[in-house]
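Appendix B. Chain record.
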Amino acid sequence: MEYYRAFATMGITPDLYIKKYAIPLVGIGLLFPILITLILGDLTPPPVKTVLYLIPVALTLLIVMYPITFLESRKRQIDDSIHYYVTELGVLSTARMSRKDLMGKVSENEAYGFLAEETAKIHMLMDKWNLSFARACQFIAQRTPSWLFADFLGRFAHAVQAGEDVETFLRSEQKVVMNDFDTMYRDSLHSIDMITELFVSLMMSLIFIVSFAIILPVIIGMDSTLLMLGSLLIFAVSEVALVYFAKLRVPKDRIWHTLDIETRADRAIKRTFPISIIACGVVGVVVFVAGIFPTNVMIAMMITPLIITGRVASREEEKIKRKDDNFAAFIRSLGATAGARGGMVNESLRELTEHDFGPLSEEIRALYKRLATRVNKVRSWEYFAAGTGSNLIERFGTIFAEGTHIGGKPEVIGEIIGDNFMHITSLRKLRYSSSRSLVGTLYGLTAGIAFTLFLSVVIMDMLTRVFTSAEIPAGMDIGLSLDTAESINMEMINLFVILMMLIHAALSSILIRIVDGGHIFNTYTHFVGLTWTSVICAEMTVRLVTPMISAGGGWG
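Structure tokens predicted for this chain:
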């Protein structure tokens, strides 16, 4: 059944998929290793042969898994937009549009992605193939990748066949779909706890591997560079995979707007970013020329100016959250006032400019001035959304503008949008709470990683000095030798560990941004904070532990 929906979503038959993609790819996968083996013969190293034999297996897995992966990606697109979609349908239905026109209007909204394509199919089946609305909905419901959307279409088709009024049905569906979305959103939020536990477990395992890689060269005489390079790759790939997994699991609910309008906040961030980069260069030159700090401290000092841009982005993000908290009250008041005035939105807005809606008040006054010019109503609302910087206000504000523009009922529109907006903001607050818990966990984990890895470095340094100064009798070296101990480059090992900590700080800050849905430049705040956390713990470990286990000097 899943493959049936997958091929329907891809717009291709199973036979054509096998002929056009499966057979050629698997054939190439089988032919390539055979040709390489025939050409090189015995010159092919065993590891290379193993990789060659795995190529057809990998391509076969790709062929089998791609339809399901494609299905899941399209399902996610629909589920992430279904609450906006049903809100817009409910708003437009107040204008008493025909069912075909309703589907046609919503399908023009590119923000819905694949959901707009599915709606366009319903419209095409009605317009080109003369299918009834109920039959078209049932046809798409059997093929759409999203069960959430399929259930909605099934209820819609049944309501139409039973003679229920479209506006009444869509009014009642607001709560049904929002409850389904609520369940899906909370389930995604629960995955954040799972990701946190998985991240901690993974880091514990990686710390164990890296600590052994640091100490093993002096014990069994292995190449320290090769071990550290392998550990670095394992460390980086594992964290990247986990961050990517988190991106797939958490809700796709961004905070910032997506409009092509440059706002004051955008200009502030763009203005501070070059300043941060230049400051990083200046600080880097100064500290490296001075040469009085340990390497890890110098690197931390060099990246510290990035926090300028990070703090600006963080400050603007907090303003957006405060404006979101006031929007539901504003849109409800505007809808109710406009309904009482016979749909006169501009006059109602003029009256509301005298009320206090917190940080949203300035943008409301600017919106009234734009609407008073009567140039472009929808564009005026887009500038209003851009001024707030909020993606939620962008989506719901546009829906309100379109609904009232085509003659919908302002009081009903305001109520629908206000209720759904408050529902989403309440879910977002749960997300922010989960994000704060993750931040605390990551900072504590970073401190633990830094302590363990640099403790291993200190032990390694001590062992190297012991073995280089000791005389080991013949036959008792068990892989140890004076040459092995002397060949170990402690500066190189130290740099590898510093690089691991920088990678961990960068990927952890990206993980925080993925979880809370904030601006990408806000990662700089946590990147700098996590880097300094690791540096402080590293220096404390080196300077406190070294005197306990060795009479030698510090590390740096």
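Further analysis of this model is presented in Appendix C.
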